[in-house]
Amino acid sequence: MIVFDGVSFSYGSRRVLRDVHLSVGFHERVAVLGGSGEGKTTILRLILGLIKPDEGRILIEGDDITAKREEELRDVRMKFSIVFQEGALFDSLDVKENVAYCLREYTSMSEEEIDSRVREILGSVGVEQAIHLMPEELSGGMHRRVSIARSLALGTPKMFLYDEPTTGLDPVNADNICRLIADLSKDGRGFIMVTHKVSDALKVADRFIFLKDGSLLFDGDSRGLLHTDAPEIRMFIEEIGHQGQGC
Amino acid sequence: MDIKALLSDLQNFYTLAYRGLLGIVRRPFYFKDAMIQMDYAGAGSLVIVFIVDLFVGMALSLQLSAELSSLGMKMYIGMIVGISVVRELGPVVTALVFTGRVGAGMASELGSMVLGHQVDTIRVFGFDPVKKLVVPRIVSSLIMLPALTVIGVAVSLLGGYYIAVFVSHQSGTFYWSSIRNILTMENVLAGAIKPFIFGYLISSICCYMGLSTKGGAVGLRQSTTMAVVMSIVMIIISDFLLTRVLLYVLGFSV
User: Fold this and answer.
1) What residues of A are in contact with residue B117 (Cβ under 8 Å)?
2) Which of A121, A191, B40, B151 is most buried by a 10 A CB count?
3) Contact yes or no for B116 and A86 at CB 8 A
């Protein structure tokens, strides 16, 4: 269970989260929605301990991570697998080395074993043919897939975190990524997906959180989201009309 | 910039510089990363160091030749070129070239890694960015800048020789024997200590600026510019301070 207990966070003088109270189970499929700069990505960074809240506590399985030092956070971070916006692949390394990055550091696998494991993971996300390409040679969709593959290299996490996984992708590629996200959570592992694309969120998530001015404006299921009267959310719902209903 | 932010920046810089230095002797060691950085910093800078130091040596020799010939003391070209290059110009000019090529590269590479969430990814994977990114760059600077300085000094002396012999028509044998005479332990030490200090300063400043990058392309431009400017200023200031201390410690009278 992830618990935000009265969390506030500011970037300089700009407050992005205000007294946020939130609980998410590791099995839940959550979409965090909201406009740009509303603190969606900040939530993911707070969960991983990459930034510390100004106020409040964050508990991961009952463990308060807010006071933990960098070296103590490794075990917490290993529970998650994150795919950052636009993939965040290491651009000096090819696809194989990106996926093998942790394998080389944390395992004593031979070169053959690493090659075989990398091919297996890349195959599972459908980009085995890109193994020797450099990140700049990948399309947006392949970039995200390789990033997902890299996050799976060390094993299966308890929960996936996706930061705008479909942003900048054409509808076909976005659809493929949504399908991959849904497939990866079939065995009961949940995810938190940060997105501003309601249509994509509706394809994969069961619970929807809408952020506005640093607070939770909505927290509920798809039915509640689609029938809410809140004008800020209605504006987002309109987007579905333009892009086509995804569910 | 307000005082609080400035003090906070200074504290963060000293912490990073200290942890970077400590990381050289503390596990884990990332030899492969250090080797990649050494290749970039050393082999990649060789040509530009060669060209710059060659022309600095030639220009210095030419200036001295013009001035000393009016005093009838052209035979001292070798000695003065030698002392200037070994103790002062070689280390400083090579460090400035190193800043422009390697330091700027460090700051912009780390800055773009920050903006592209690659540094966050490294942290999420359980690596310490200081160990993984900063220490290899400090190690490569501590090894490659002194090595480049030795090459730069040799090339500068060669440039000085060319002017002394083929333009000023001095004896080449006398030029080299003058150089040999000034290569005393004190002179060599006075020049040899500087590149280590400069290398540490350049890598620490540029890594700090790179890792502090915020705000997209404009932020990257600012951090890279700041890294180069701060490094150059610190090289010049620390060169003066080091010269003062080394002259005193090595027993030179001023």
Assistant:
1) 84-86, 88, 163
2) A191
3) yes
pLDDT digits (tens, 9 = 90+) for B91-110: 999 999 999 999 999 999 99
Phi, psi of B247, deg, nearest 5: -60, -40
Kindly provide the ipTM of the predicted complex, given to two decimals: 0.85
Would the CB atoms of A78 and B126 count as touching at under 8 Å? yes
Please give, one letter per residue, the 3-state secondary structure of chain B. CCHHHHHHHHHHHHHHHHHHHHCCCCCCCCHHHHHHHHHHHCHHHHHHHHHHHHHHHHHHHHHHHHHHHHHCCHHHHHHHHHHHHHHHHHHHHHHHHHHHHHHHHHHHHHHHHHHCCHHHHHHHCCCCHHHHHHHHHHHHHHHHHHHHHHHHHHHHHHHHHHHHHHHCCCCHHHHHHHHHHHCCHHHHHHHHHHHHHHHHHHHHHHHHHHHCCCCHHHHHHHHHHHHHHHHHHHHHHHHHHHHHHHHHHCCCCC
* B123–chain A Cβ distance below 8 A for any pair: yes
Check CB contact under 8 Å for A84 and B123: no
Model pLDDT for residues B28-58, shown as the tens digit of each residue: 888 888 999 999 999 989 999 999 999 999 9
CB atoms within 10 A of CB B83: 19
